[in-house]
Structure formats: C-alpha cells, structure tokens
C-alpha cells in the first residue's frame, strides 16, 4: 500500500469506534498495538459475554473478536449481535482453520477471517476491504433522521444507532415514499394510495399508521405540515 492510500485509510478509521474481544492477554496486547495505529477509540473485553453487554449499551462501528473465549464464545456473541444489527462489519481472529468453523463464521456474515498468528498486513487488507465496501459505499445508502435514526435504502431498514427497528410492510412502504425526496411534502392522499395500494379512501388509515409508528419508535420521525401533508424529520449537519 502506498503512503497516500495508507493515509486515507487511517483518516477513515480514526473516527470509528471498535469493539475488540480476546481472552488471551498477550494476543490482546499485541493486537491492540496494531489497531491503535488506526483507531482512536477501542473498547477491549476478555470474553463474549462482556462483549455482547458492551454492544447492547454502546454504539460501535466495527467488531474484532476471537472465537474460543470463556463465558460466551465468539460465534454465540456474533449470533446475538446479528439479531440486533445484521449489517455491522465483524472480523474474526482465530487459530481455527478447519472447514466447520469457517463455514459457521460465513453463515454469520462476517466481513473478514484472520488466522492466528497474523501479521500487520493481514489487518490492513481487511480494513481496506471494510472501509471501501461498508463505510464508503454503504454510507451513501444511509439517510440520517433525528434522534439517531436512519433509513438504509439498500436494505430497506429503519435503524436506531445499531439496532434495526422491525417495521410492517405498510411502514416500509411509507419510508420508501418519504425518503424519495427530502424537500417534498407528501399529501395524505398520495401516502394512502402508495402505502395501501387499493381503491379505498380513508384518511384515518394514514393517521393510524403514523400513530403506531410513533408508539413503536418513541418519537415523531414524521412531521405533520399544516394543510399540506407530511415529511420526515431529517438530521441536517
């Protein structure tokens, strides 16, 4: 990797917060020294149980983990994390190179698998892949809303920080419509025709849909504009 590419990689990584789970103290210390060259904020845990607890209570951009750990192994931790966030990139450090473990990690949708003992370039290659395919390209698909919510147009999911909010088919159709333009105000009739896709005219359905959404997410993501219609509450920087 040339100096310019390396500098760009470090710049992208600097503002990412990572979770690193490893029970072996020597490996943990060595790996942290490598990761600290790229990441300013690294949360280190010694087992999968502590890792999952931290993930539940803090936002992370990227996860590095061992497989064989006490209290909860890496695969179980990944399974639990994937139920909360199916898209966060996860990299596995492991001494296991047999097919069984490799297939299990693929099933969990890991972004990288590094065999121990590893060298510095192994981490660089994985970071290049993740930053290019997940953060650079993936970020284009994220539409930031208020209070830490965002709509991912690629996966058609509403997320709150790291958690995916389960939506009904009507709620998904609503977000697809409202995210199609940040400037537009959508009238109630247009929302009703697009979301429900039938010939029934009943404006109360839209109000009920928005009420259920408000109750589900705990805030008003959709703004009512008097005598005009509705629009999403975008996060402007």
UniProtKB/TrEMBL annotation:
Pfam families: Response_reg, Trans_reg_C
Organism annotation: Sulfurospirillum multivorans (strain DM 12446 / JCM 15788 / NBRC 109480)
GO CC annotation, single: protein-DNA complex
Location of 4-aspartylphosphate modifications: 66
Positions of the DNA-binding region: 141-234
Domain Response regulatory: 17-131
PANTHER family: REGULATOR OF RPOS, TWO-COMPONENT RESPONSE REGULATOR ORR33
A GO biological process held by the record: regulation of DNA-templated transcription
Classification via Gene3D superfamilies: 3.40.50.2300, Winged helix-like DNA-binding domain superfamily/Winged helix DNA-binding domain (1.10.10.10)
Domain of life: Bacteria
Alphabetical list of SUPFAM superfamilies matching this protein: CheY-like
GO molecular function, one term: phosphorelay response regulator activity
OmpR/PhoB-type domain sequence ranges: 141-234
UniProt protein name: DNA-binding response regulator
Alphabetically ordered keywords of this record: DNA-binding, Phosphoprotein, Transcription, Transcription regulation, Two-component regulatory system
């Amino acid at each position: 990797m040339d100096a310019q590419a390396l500098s760009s990689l470090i710049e992208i990584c600097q503002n990412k917060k990572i979770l690193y789970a490893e029970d072996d103290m020597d490996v943990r210390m060595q790996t942290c020294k490598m990761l600290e060259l790229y990441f300013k904020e690294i949360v280190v845990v010694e087992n999968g149980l502590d890792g999952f607890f931290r993930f539940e209570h803090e936002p992370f951009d990227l996860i590095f983990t061992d497989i064989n750990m006490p209290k909860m192994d890496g695969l179980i931790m990944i399974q639990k994390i994937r139920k909360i966030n199916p898209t966060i990139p996860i990299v596995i450090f492991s001494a296991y190179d047999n097919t069984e473990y490799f297939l299990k990690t693929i099933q969990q949708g890991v972004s990288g698998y590094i065999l121990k003992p590893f060298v510095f370039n192994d981490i660089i290659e994985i970071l290049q892949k993740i930053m290019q395919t997940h953060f650079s390209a993936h970020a284009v698909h994220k539409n930031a809303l208020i209070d830490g919510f965002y709509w991912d147009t690629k996966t058609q999911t509403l997320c709150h920080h790291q958690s995916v909010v389960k939506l009904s088919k009507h709620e998904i159709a609503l977000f697809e419509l409202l995210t199609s333009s940040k400037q537009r105000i959508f009238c109630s009739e247009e929302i009703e025709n697009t979301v429900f896709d039938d010939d029934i005219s009943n404006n109360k359905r839209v109000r009920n849909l928005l009420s259920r959404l408000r109750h589900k997410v705990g805030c008003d993501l959709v703004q009512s504009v008097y005598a005009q219609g509705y629009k999403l509450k975008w996060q402007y920087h």
